[in-house]
Structures are given as structure tokens and as C-alpha cells.
Amino acid sequence: MQPHRQLSMGLIALGAGAALTALLGPFGTGTLHYRTSELALNQIRGGDAAALLVLAPLCTVVAVLALRRHPAAPVLALGPAVYAVYMYSQLILGNEYGQVPGNVERFFPLLLSLVLTGAWVGVSATRLLRTTRLPATTARFDRVTGGVLLVLAAYVVLGIHLGSYLDAVSASPSDPQYLGAPTAFWVVKLWDLGAVVPAAVVVGVGLLRGRAWAKAPMYAIIGGYLLLACSVAGMAWAMYAADDPGGSLAQALTVSAFVGALLAAALRLYRPLLRGPWVSVATRSSSDRSSDRSSDPPMDGHRAMVSRASR
After folding, report:
1. Which residue ranges in the chain fall short of pLDDT 50?
2. What are the boundaries of each domain within the chain?
3. DSSP 99
4. CA–CA separation, 7 and 22 (whole Å)
5. Helix orientation angle between 139-154 and 249-270, rounded to the nearest 10 degrees
6. CB-based contacts of 222: which residues, under 8 Å, 6+ apart?
7. Alpha-carbon distance 234 to 239, whole Å?
8. Which pLDDT score, from 0 to 100, does residue 259 have?
9. Nearest-CA neighbor of 81 among 49, 126, 45?
């Protein structure tokens, strides 16, 4: 199977599976009952809304680009791949099995397939990136992006997790999220502090130092962070709509503003991927260019020089 077609099929499966899970879960029909607290269910509703309204359409668009062998497809696929592995593994592991009623275990094959499909999309995209020349970025742009990643990492640690961790290990924990769903609480801590933050720090430092290897992971982390931010915004609005004690209008507006800022940064990052000059050059392998040259009609020296320069 051609690599681009393989990537496209993976993205279509991921988008369809994410939409199906959202429609079956508490945001949709409620057929899928997670074994967790009502407070955590409000967050899952928001995450399902983001999956249905953002992740699934994005996967469809990128799948079409992959079918057209667009060079931006593997880069754009990295974000959904990272998000799927991150989010759906949490929906499997973060339940209070044996403590709270539900039937999530019956849907284990569906949730597991989303984790595996996300990994498949990530591997397929990475394979294509090995033969793709990413658009050039300036040293200043790399430094700014590296700084943004370090700020995001610091925010996740200090602004999101530190306070709740200190509360959880205190003599009298009071955080309703921890008290209502302790398993999900620690699973999120594991993923964020054990994987997301370290990856952002490593790539951020690499960009600040001008390392070429940090370019591809930069797209994956920014894309994954953007989808995660959309999910968190959905959670914040769902919590506010349900009068959740952990939610508020100020929180929902703040998170939404953060999503807007991150979206602006992501658009600035991804815009060069869709520009014509890069598309016309980077999609073609050396063998394709050799084939093109062999099939070109004879041309005089001046025309040949101009043709090679344009390529």
C-alpha cells in the first residue's frame, strides 16, 4: 500500500472512530457509560464535543490532502496522532473500575482501536517525513517557538498541576476532581508530567539552540497542544453549563482566549506548509525529478539553466 494512502486510511479511521465514540458517550446518546464521577463526566462531555467538532473534521481534511499526496499531510497528521494516543488511553485507564457503575469495558475494543490508530497515523506520518523537506524557518522564529513551548510546559506544571498535586498529598485533600475521580487524576498527571511536559522542554531547548532535529517534533507538539487546548476549552464550557463547582465563566473565557492565542501561533507555524513554492518542490522525490528531467524535451543551454534554477 502506498504510504500516502496508508496515512489517509488511518486518518479516516481515526476521525470516524472519534466521532462514533463522542456520539456514544455522555455528550451523545449516553450508550457508553464511563465509570467515573459526574464531575469527570462533564469534562468528558466537553472533550467529546471537541472530538466531534474539531478532531474528526480535521482528520477528514488531512486525509484528503494525503490522498492528493500533499506534502503538508504528514506534518498536519502529527497533531491528531499525538492527541488520540494521549486522550483515548486516558479514557481507558482513568475509570474507577469496581467502584463506580458503568459499562466502559464493553467499549474497550473501540477505545483501544483509537489508541492504536493514532499510533499508526503517527508512524505513517513519520515515515513520510523522512523523505519530505520541511519549509525553512528563520532562527528568530525557532527561538520564539522554542520559548513558547517552554512557557507552555511551565504553565502545565505550575498553573495546572502543582496546586492540585499539593492538595492531593496533603492531610485533607479538598479538590473535588481528585476526590471524585482519583484514578483519572493520577493518569492525567502521569501523561502530562511524564510525557507532554518533558517532550515540550526537550524540543523547546532544541529550537532555542538551533537544532535541526527539533523541527518535525515542533509541529507534532504544537498540533497536539492545540487539539488538547480545544478539548480543555470544551471541558470548561461543559463544566460551566452544568454548574460544576470546578467550573466558571471566567475559566471558560480564559481557556477560550488561550485557545485563540495558540491557534494564531499554530496558523503562523503551519501557513508555510500550504504555500505553492514549497508544495511544488518538496512533494517530489529525487527519482521523480530525475524522471521529469529524462522526459523533458531538449532545450538550449540558457533554457536548461533557467529550468534547473526554477527547480
Report:
1. 277-311
2. 3-273
3. T
4. 23
5. 160
6. 79, 145, 149, 262, 265, 266, 269
7. 9
8. 83
9. 126
